[in-house]
Every structure is written in C-alpha cells, then in structure tokens.
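> run fold CidABC operon transcriptional activator CidR
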Amino acid sequence: MDIRQMQYLIEVARLKSFTKAAEALYITQPTISKTIKGIEEELGVVLFDRFGKKIELTDAGQIIVGQAQQIVTSFQNLTAELDDLRNLKKGHIRIGLPPMVGSSFFPKVIGQFHHRYPEITIQLIEDGAKKVESDVASGALEVGVVVLPTVQEGLSSFPFVEEKLNLVVHPTHPLAERKAAELWELAQDQFVLFREDFTLHDRIINECGKAGFQPHVIYESSQWDLISEMVAVGLGITLLPETICREIDDERVRIIPLVKPIIPWKLGIVWRDDRYLSFATREWIRFAQHELAAQGQG
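> ok
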C-alpha cells in the first residue's frame, strides 16, 4: 500500500462514500473502488461494511485508517519541510470550517491570502466545529475554526469573534413581541438545532438542562438558513449567534435577545503547535489573525 492508496482510503473513510471521495480527489469512482478492493486483497481484511449506498469502517478498517493517517501526515510533514528548505513558498492547506462561519468571516481573508500567495492552495473542509476540532487534533487538518473553549488537548488557538445566542421565533409565537427572553420560558417549545457534530448542539442542550428541562428537538440540520426557514414556517424555535441573525429575513421571524442565561459564542482558529507546521500553515495563521482582527475593528 503506497501513499496514494492511503490517501484514497482516508478520503473514503472521511466522506463515507466512494462517489464523494472520487469527486474530492478528482478521479473516477471505479478507480477508487478498485484501489480499496486492492488494499483489502493485499491485507486480507474487509475495510468497509456496505449497507446499500451507505458504508462504515469495520474494526480492521478503523485500525488501518488510523495508521494510514499517521503515515500520510508524516509524509506531508516531510514534503512540507523540504519545500520550506527550498524556500519555494508553495504549499497546500486543509482548513476545517463550520458551514455557518464561512460566508460571514472568511471570503475576504481567503481572497487576500490567495492574492499574496498565489502558489499556496487552500482546501476548505466543511464540518461541524466538534468534528473540525477532532480532525485538527488528530492531524487530519492543519488548521480549523472551532467554538472556544476547546476540549481536545494540545491545541493552540486565537479568538476572533465573541458574541451571544439570540432566540429566533415565528411572529405568532407568544414571546414574539418581547424585548428579551429567558431560557426556561422555552420548556414547552419544539427546537430546531444544528446537528450533533456542531458544538452549539451540545451547548444548547446542556444550558436547557441547567434551566430545568430537556428540549424537544424535532429537526437537526447543518445549514443555518434551513434552520431559520423551519422557524419561519412555524415548525419550531431556535437559538442562533448574532452574526447569523443579522443574515436572517427579520420580516418572517422575530429575533429576541436571550438574557438568562446569556449563552456565549466564541470562535477561534486552532492548530497543533507540537507538530511541524509548514510555511503555508504558519503564514495562514499569522495572516488570518491580522486580517480578522482588522475586520473586527472595522
């Protein structure tokens, strides 16, 4: 099994789909299917359980993918160090980005970075903040955007925005005309939340528990616009960060400050500083910190 085969295997495991992995790697699905089959025959194990169109790693697959990720990371570190030694100022960065964060903060920063370093390519991996944090900690991603504070050990970070959550309700909701709301008042409501791989999912449920109730969650999504649309048609209520609330059509919903408790939403960029960081990654961290700080001041 060579590095290329390991990369194919890791991508299939990450996306849980041969088709999506082939698209991400810009190869055909038969090529990636043949590669995985070849690895299974070479090692004498089954790597994936197949359930129709769904696939999951077997126990053997989990072990092999874990080892493959370490080998690929070491290989990437080696090539990055050699590139830096030659001072080519080229490279590739995999950045984990929660979907609700990207459009609000990063298009301008990424555009400016590409203008300054056109030979550095950026691959954006959209996942919930919990998954991004885990992938940075494991080395699957060089850098990521997460909700602070982090739970994984060994991560360095800098914050770039600190806001709070607002209540979003339908205009006919009993609290719709209120100037502020308390969490306990939502005990009988139906909630529309982000999926479990989003930090806000657990944070909201934990805060509801502290307020004395278990929220009735009727729908979960990875897209904030779909969540707000569900509220707009009267299917439930939600809690969203101030930045997202500013993007919502406030003629179809009502946005109310949540004052008891105030639930913070603090975003930061994280990376592993106990591993080798390529020139591209180091420069991205420095550049993003400067530009995001400038955006905040503006």
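The chain has a mean pLDDT of 90.
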